[in-house]
């Protein structure tokens, strides 16, 4: 943190999750942030402005035309004051306004005027989140560099279940702090990150895959981009939005992943193979949907896929750093050390996916960073935090190679 106290302008919109903004405010304050609040009129129906004024110690801005306590154009003053502009919760309405340049109230006017980084944490009904208009608007914001904290899935206040629930407040606050405190120590470097699962077809409707959510790889790509790197993200089929400011290249099969990785690897400084490619594929893909056969067992003949990490490791230059992952269920360290040598890696990130809080489908991880002559076990932390440690060590290894 610099000697100058950082300022977060917290936008609160009219959804049932508005009350959670109070906790986000307190979490930011605990990290030394000065927080100013801008509310929409509908947000005031859920939480009184007095609540945020008491917590923040500052007047709450709601009405664009209300006479300010001091002589200044309030929305411009707030826009200039912000080191980060965070909207949580962000309704479909404010996302639509931001995406399409509409500024018709205090919040939309202020966020349009700011030059600070902007982050939104959407919260809404599942149908609204899945609506093509909302998805198109979110993609517009991401393309403009807005940080989007993808909503979680769960039971919603309206009674529905699905995507649209405000992400955990601790995750939102952490993402905000990461944007505020991130140094540009990777500026000028090119970083390739692979993420997510592959899918190997069995017939026109079925495939072999795995439980990888892509969250670890996406956290790495986002962290690298925030630290100034030129990031290329190779992504398998996942249900999360890619981070702002990265070049996205999609793949489906393990062969697709390998082909795309070989296309880009030669121009990179740091390679991170965080994707989970399928080790096997069908020897023959059925041209039509496979049908049941009166209780008879189905026999599938599988053949090995190419080893993506090993192939990239063979082609790695001496002035590149190559980081791999080992998601294991037993003998984690031994398996990881074997892969480190076999695949010509500079470092491998090992984790036991059977441990609570680690592995697939969760926002946390427990990893060990293993090098040829060193090993460092990290405690339970979010995947965002783990990404920071991994990239910091990768940068140190790169600097040592090029010294």
**Helicity level, as a percent range?**
25-40%
- For the record, give the distance between the C-alpha atoms at the N and C termini, rounded to a whole number: 29 Å
CATH C-level name of the largest domain = Alpha Beta
Low-pLDDT segments: none
Q: What form results from the Cα inertia axes? A: globular
Which CATH-level-2 architecture of the largest domain?
3-Layer(aba) Sandwich
User: What is the arithmetic mean of pLDDT?
Assistant: 92
Number of extended strands = 21
User: Given the structure, what is the number of helices?
Assistant: 13
Description:
- By secondary structure, the protein is α/β, with parallel strands linked by helices.
- It folds into two domains: 7-181, 3-Layer(aba) Sandwich (Rossmann fold), CATH 3.40.50.1950; 190-402, CoaB-like (Rossmann fold), CATH 3.40.50.
- The chain is 34% helix and 23% strand.
- The chain is built from 13 helices and 21 strands.
- The chain has helices spanning 20-30, 49-56, 74-81, 92-100, 106-113, 126-130, 132-143, 169-181, 215-226, 254-265, 308-315, 332-342, 383-402; strands at 7-12, 34-39, 84-90, 118-122, 147-148, 152-155, 161-165, 190-195, 200-201, 207-208, 230-235, 247-250, 270-273, 280-282, 302-304, 321-328, 347-352, 364-365, 368-371, 374-377, 381-382.
- The strands form six sheets. It has an eight-stranded mixed sheet, sandwiched between helices.
- β16, α12 (332-342) and β17 (347-352) form a beta-alpha-beta unit.
- The model has no long low-confidence stretch (mean pLDDT 92).
């Amino acid at each position: 943190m610099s000697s100058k106290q950082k300022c977060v302008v917290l936008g609160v919109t009219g959804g049932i999750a508005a009350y959670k903004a109070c906790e986000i405010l307190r979490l930011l304050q605990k990290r030394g942030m000065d927080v100013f609040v801008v509310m929409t009129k509908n947000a005031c129906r859920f939480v009184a402005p007095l609540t945020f004024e008491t917590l923040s110690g500052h007047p709450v801005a709601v009405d664009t035309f209300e006479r300010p306590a001091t002589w200044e154009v309030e929305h411009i003053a707030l826009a200039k004051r912000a080191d980060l502009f965070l909207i949580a919760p962000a309704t479909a309405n404010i996302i639509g306004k931001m995406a399409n340049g509409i500024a018709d109230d205090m919040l939309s006017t202020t966020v349009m005027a700011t030059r600070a980084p902007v982050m939104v944490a959407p919260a809404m009904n599942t149908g609204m989140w899945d609506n093509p208009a909302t998805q198109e608007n979110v993609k517009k914001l991401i393309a403009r560099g807005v940080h989007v904290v993808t909503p979680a899935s769960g039971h919603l206040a309206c009674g529905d279940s699905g995507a649209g629930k405000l992400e955990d407040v601790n995750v939102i606050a952490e993402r905000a702090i990461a944007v505020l405190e991130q140094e540009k120590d990777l500026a000028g470097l090119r970083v390739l990150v692979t993420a997510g699962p592959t899918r190997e077809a069995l017939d026109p409707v079925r495939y072999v895959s795995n439980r990888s959510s892509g969250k670890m790889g996406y956290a790495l790509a986002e962290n690298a981009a925030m630290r100034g790197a030129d990031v290329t993200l190779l992504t398998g089929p996942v249900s999360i939005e890619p981070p702002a400011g990265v070049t996205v290249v999609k793949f489906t099969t393990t062969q697709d992943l390998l082909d795309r990785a070989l296309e880009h690897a030669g121009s990179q400084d740091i390679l991170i193979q965080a994707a989970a490619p399928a080790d096997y594929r069908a020897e023959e893909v059925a041209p039509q949907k496979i049908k049941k056969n009166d209780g008879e067992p189905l026999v599938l003949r599988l053949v090995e896929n190419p080893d993506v990490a090993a192939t990239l490791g063979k082609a790695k230059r001496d002035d590149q750093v190559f980081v791999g992952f080992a998601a294991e269920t037993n003998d984690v360290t031994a398996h990881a050390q074997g892969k480190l040598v076999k695949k010509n890696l500079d470092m491998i990130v090992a984790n036991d996916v059977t441990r609570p809080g680690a592995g697939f489908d969760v926002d946390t991880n427990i990893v060990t960073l293993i090098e040829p002559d060193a090993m460092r076990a990290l405690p339970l932390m979010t995947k965002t935090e783990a990404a920071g440690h991994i990239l910091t060590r990768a940068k140190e290894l790169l600097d040592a190679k090029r010294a």
